[in-house]
Amino acid sequence: AMTQSDMEKRVWDMKRELGTRLFMPGHYYQKEEVIQFADETGDSLKLAKTGAANKEAEYIVFCGVHFMAETADILSEDHQTVLLPDLRAGCSMADMAEITQLEKAWENLQGTFADTITPLTYVNSTAAIKAFCGRHEGATLTSSNAGTMLQWAFRRKERILFLPDQHLGRNTAYDMGIPLEEMAVWDPIRQELDCDGDPEKVRMILWKGHCSVHEKFTMDNVRQVRKDDPEAHIIVHPECMFDVVQASDAAGSTNKIIDMIQKAPAGSTWVVGTEMNLVNRLMQEETDKKVRSLNPNMCPCLTMNRIDLPHLLWSLESILSAEPHYRIEVDEQTTREATTALQRMLQQ
Ligand code: 13P
Ligand code: SF4
């Protein structure tokens, strides 16, 4: 069997051999054994932009999850092939919104609210959901531009249907001054709107989805930190639950989390509510600060972690043997409509 260092050497060799024929973006949540090879690292927005800008590479090997590879394929040129090193690297949140559920939800909501809704989807969604948003005058967003995109949508129509992450939707809308009473949750299983008050007042319809990693950061975790270490700064990803975000000192995309901690004064303590690999990296790199996870159990994203060194090696070998494996290919019509939704975001 190959040792870790054999495998690493082989990947460096293949990268050298492939040169600019290969482009490898890597999300911040990737393991060190993988991200060390990335040509570009970033949050979802940065990776979507740099992926779209690369017109040269013949192969894009995406070190991230399935929806990111789909976005890369949607924004890529015809001559470019996108590969995902392990097809099981999905995203449980993206899987919480299926296109058939959305079609039904839309029909139902049009019955109540007529033509007053703009659909917005977090990029953590399937290409089919993005295409739906493209067809219905909606757009995509990421955690970096969620506020801007909500404002964009509210300039067009009075309501938003926000998919698939209820927490990002609620946290972003609340930050813009929309009270919780003007938000309701659409349950895609029961096909029902959970709404306490008058539906006429609802401006924000939140799809009932969540990230199973970020839901593991709880109010108990926050209380424990406040008790043990009142000087510590708590910073979380906006995929965390509303109460947790409210009780934290800051919230933001992975890029913002990194940026704030890098710029923080030496000696300060940062307790972070996001995926384990990023927290570990910050602990190792920001040695003049104290960094730790908000949940002592660390919270890995199991699907992000499916991309490992053996799968990366295997993916590059498949290219060199002219039999590229695990190609991610979005059909033409979906690509066209999803591009519309993505472009509305990238133009903001
Ligand atoms: P960002 O890197 O855009 O903040 O997204 C986090 C995430 O959960 C990606 O799946
Ligand atoms: Fe999906 Fe959550 Fe993993 Fe991000 S951290 S890829 S949202 S399951």
Automatic annotation (TrEMBL):
| Cofactor annotation remark | Binds 1 [4Fe-4S] cluster per subunit.
Q: Which residues cross the membrane?
A: none
A Pfam match is NadA
* Top-level taxon in the UniProt lineage: Bacteria
Give the pathway annotation: Cofactor biosynthesis; NAD(+) biosynthesis; quinolinate from iminoaspartate: step 1/1
* One CC-aspect GO term: cytosol
UniProt-annotated binding residues for [4Fe-4S] cluster: 91, 211, 301
UniProt entry keywords in alphabetical sequence:
4Fe-4S, Cytoplasm, Iron, Iron-sulfur, Metal-binding, Pyridine nucleotide biosynthesis, Transferase
Enzyme Commission designation? 2.5.1.72
Annotated GO biological processes are: 'de novo' NAD+ biosynthetic process from L-aspartate
Q: What is the similarity comment for this entry?
A: Belongs to the quinolinate synthase family. Type 3 subfamily.
According to its UniProt entry, the function of this protein is described as: Catalyzes the condensation of iminoaspartate with dihydroxyacetone phosphate to form quinolinate.
Q: What is this protein called?
A: Quinolinate synthase
The scientific name of the source species is Salibacterium halotolerans
